[in-house]
Design brief:
CATH topology of the largest domain: Rossmann fold
Largest sheet: 6 strands, mixed
Strand order of the largest sheet: 3-8-7-4-5-6
Number of domains: 2
Helix content: 25-40%
Distance between the termini: 18 Å
Order of helices and strands: HEHEEHEHEHEHEHEEHEHEH
Radius of gyration: 22 Å
Shape: elongated
Number of strands: 11
Length: 252
């Protein structure tokens, strides 16, 4: 693998949508790189027709648990399509304050009861348990579910129902079929799945892979891929630092 590791890097493809603040801007300038961004997965909302097959009416629930802004958007989209107006007495439990603040786009905040935590469902535990016997909870989610939230609600015997309102699917990457990059960056196993759904005969060859997370690394290994660059906390806490360390050698 030494020859591949020493080959200079000129082009990089990040398998995500470009954020407002590009974490690789400094490296792009420092090493004169071409860094492109392209989401390998996308989210598609269920149609009203498909959601009705779940036989769930949001207004039959007295409490809603939101794990993301995305869940909020699709929840109220479905409600609008079904011509449902949630009761002013509905309680909303949000994983973070940022998610709770996002609710203001969809409800009159002062007239609703909104609770939020710092990061996880455990932060909301005291408030949730306080209302456990009185409320019927709905968890708007995607096809991948909300593993930790679901486990908590089951373990603590809440009266709750999951409602799939959107799906995470592989994006169409057919236009990249004959485009090659020196480095591909992945942050999720879903990105690896998308790679092979789009290009079933993909071979790594001289392409280097920069991968974050154990699950994503495992997905690479299952496909026989070699991970060349990876953050290793606490010494190498970010992908930006891991990539910089690699480029110091490859582009020397």
């Amino acid at each position: 693998m030494a020859p591949k590791a020493l080959k200079p890097v000129r082009t990089i493809l990040v398998s995500q949508r470009e954020p407002e603040r590009n974490p690789f801007a400094r490296l792009e300038k420092k090493y004169d790189l071409q860094i492109d961004w392209r989401p390998f997965i996308e989210v598609k909302g269920l149609t009203e027709k498909d959601f009705r097959k779940e036989r769930i009416r949001p207004d039959e629930f007295s409490a809603i648990i939101f794990t993301s802004k995305l869940a909020i958007e699709h929840f109220f989209r479905i409600c609008k399509a079904m011509r449902i107006e949630m009761s002013q007495d509905t309680k909303y439990y949000c994983m973070t304050e940022a998610i709770a603040n996002y609710l203001q786009k969809f409800i009159i905040y002062r007239k609703r009861k909104v609770f939020f935590g710092q990061r996880t469902i455990q932060d909301l535990a005291p408030t949730l348990k306080k209302h456990r016997s009185k409320e019927k909870f709905l968890l708007p989610t995607g096809n991948l579910g909300s593993e930790f939230v679901s486990a908590y609600l089951d373990e603590n015997k809440f009266d709750w129902t999951p409602a799939i309102m959107y799906q995470t699917v592989s994006a169409d990457l057919s236009d990249l079929e004959n485009v090659f990059y020196d480095v591909l960056i992945f942050y999720s196993p879903l990105g690896i799945n998308s790679l092979y759904e789009n290009f079933p005969t993909f071979e790594q060859k001289a392409t280097r892979l920069a991968v974050a997370g154990r699950k994503t690394t495992k997905a690479c290994e299952e496909h026989g891929l070699v991970v060349d660059i990876s953050p290793l906390p606490p010494k190498v806490p970010s992908m930006e630092m891991a990539l910089d360390n690699y480029l110091k050698e490859s582009n020397a």
